[in-house]
Amino acid sequence: MAVFTSVSEAELTDWLGDYSLGQLLELQGIASGIENTNYFVTTGNGRFVLTLFEKLTALELPFYLNLMAHLARHGIPCPAPVANRRNQFLGTLHGKPACIVSRLSGKSTTTPNLQQCTAMGAMLGQMHLAGQSFSQNMPNPRATGWRAATAPQVRPFLDAAQAALLDSEVALHAQCDWSALPQGVIHADLFRDNVLLDGDRVGGLIDFYFACTDALLYDVAITLNDWCMSADGILDETRSQGFLRAYHAVRPLQAAEQAAWPLMLRLASLRFWLSRLYDLHLPRDGDLINAHDPRHFERILKNHIATPHPVWI
Asked: Quick one: fold of 114-306?
């Protein structure tokens, strides 16, 4: 259940008085998600999603909302925030920051085919190009400092071999400086459940609340590690080729990026192994008990170490 804060039709009708969206026709809670309260909202003007932010603050949110508005204006199918009568994307409902965005069509998949992986690669390239003209900056909150601070907290829950692997990978990536690679806005969490598909076409990119500024190649690695991965943590070469070649056709990967690719796949694996270890063993108060299994990304990381993959373009 992802409705942490209940909103009645009467309360939403009153709140919508500050918008030009027409009469409220339907309000339906959304059961997915673990961070925020979400509702499907239908009005006389169309279909929308209402979000009440349970953890992010009003000071943190403008980056994400402005980014989505920027990408939507540049043809990327992502939720477009709706401005109120004061031309503000962010409002307050039940004392919490709240916004309403356009609702996209399509549904996510757990078993993407080659055509869908190819479409995802092309869309990621288009998103990265569109983000180049976005002027705001958000340093990656889960970069080197976060890894160094988080690893000691989860180490007590690991066996000796796991702890040694974690320590060696954290140390390895602390020595890497990817600042010379092409930088820009990245989604940083474009897993399959954050993409809506309309057949083999990408109908929408959602959940931008991990977005930040970092190496574009890092976003490619994060996305490919989920979309082109088998259940046993081994990359599917055919889907990986389709994904990377489609991305490269939109935003050609530089020689330095191609050289960095094997290590970037490992860094993307480490990031999610570490965050899933933390969410499993040290959940925050109020978090839902549905943490992802960290062993999945542990297997992926080990396989990337054992078999460094070419960039496949």
From this structure: Aminoglycoside 3'-phosphotransferase; Chain: A, domain 2 (3.90.1200)
